[in-house]
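Hi support team,

I'm filing this because I wasn't sure whether my run with nicotinamide-adenine-dinucleotide finished correctly. The job status page said complete, but I'd like someone to confirm that the output block is well-formed before I use it downstream. Pasting the exact inputs I used:
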Amino acid sequence: MTAHLVMIRGDGIGPEVCGAAADVLLAVCEAAGVDLHVEEGLMGGRAIDETGTPLPDDTRDRCLRADAVLFGALGGPKWDHLRGEQRCEQGLLRLRKAMDAFANVRPVRVHARLAGRSPLRRDVVEGTDLVIVRELTGGAYFGQPRERTGSGPEETARDSTVYTAREVERVARVAFELARARRRKLTSVDKANVLVSSQLWRDTVERVAAEYPDVELQHELVDSFAMHLVQQPRAYDVVVTENLFGDILSDEAGVLSASLGLLPSASLSEGSRGLYEPIHGSAPDIAGRGIANPYGAILSAALLLRHSLQRDDLALAIEAAVDDCITEDLLTPDLGGTLTTAEVSTHVRREATRRAASPALEPAP
Ligand code: NAD
Ligand code: IPM
Ligand code: MN
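And here is everything the job wrote out:
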């Protein structure tokens, strides 16, 4: 089997965690006889410095031809003065849009060994196993009009939260399918008591629900959901929500797991192509020190194997290796450990490769 991957390291800790994830991914593929071709792409601050734009056409075109894209993180203080379409973050948004990566799947599992490390009580977070499905190519991130006009006290800025029924329907289907393969419980989060975009969202999700009578659907308003998420996270299985709410709620969910650095994501389109990235940012406060937590990036590489390369077995090998390493307290400083990014990645690579080479070692899912 041959696969083509574009790797975009990005800025800040992006290159550190992306490098760690690529090491694990390449080693596992080699052990399993998968011929993985990796090319590098530029995006974000480095792309601005080298080419003047956060997403060069060349990067976009190569990503559209690849089977999958593995991405670290972008942005940082050096580029924070930039505004509007010039910002680093626009590079990532344009790539998501170009790839039509509309369904951002963000799994949140609390490892038993780390439940005591969350600032929330162990008995609240222990056993949490949920997935946030965030709509990724609509809402306020892309809606028109989007403008800044005038000057002085009357200077006005406008973002627009825009959704079509089709956009809601397709992401709702991804969430219902996922729920069907899990505990059959779906929570749709909106602000339908105020926003008309949320009223369309709720009506559309309700309509799709008719096709999934085996999945229990409930609606929650985003403000009270934000509270429930830290009060009773075990109550949730799959959560589907619009772009901006999903961005905010998934960082909140990072607190459950004890570090933002643990959470992976897969951004999926209709086909098998996907964009895989940890949910955290470029962490300028710790960049360049070799201490970033690579687990979120490594678990993103596992999602890549599952969704884009159809190698669930290899994804499980990496996920089991990560579980084992965490159980053995192989941790970076954000989780109270003393290991470097590279040391964690070496441990995971060794364990994952062993499992990939001898599938019998995989645990039951
Ligand atoms: P951040 O996620 O970069 O960092 C928030 C906090 O979490 C920091 O204290 C950081 O040290 C810590 N953290 C994050 N990832 C970690 C890891 N792997 N290991 C250990 N600690 C980790 O958020 P921010 O500081 O608000 O944003 C910094 C920049 O990153 C901004 O320019 C922002 O736009 C960008 N950003 C990029 C992405 C992305 O590229 N996908 C995502 C979020 C933010
Ligand atoms: C994320 C990030 C991005 C987002 C930024 C960097 C554009 O915060 O992936 O969660 O807001 O989607
Ligand atoms: Mn975010």
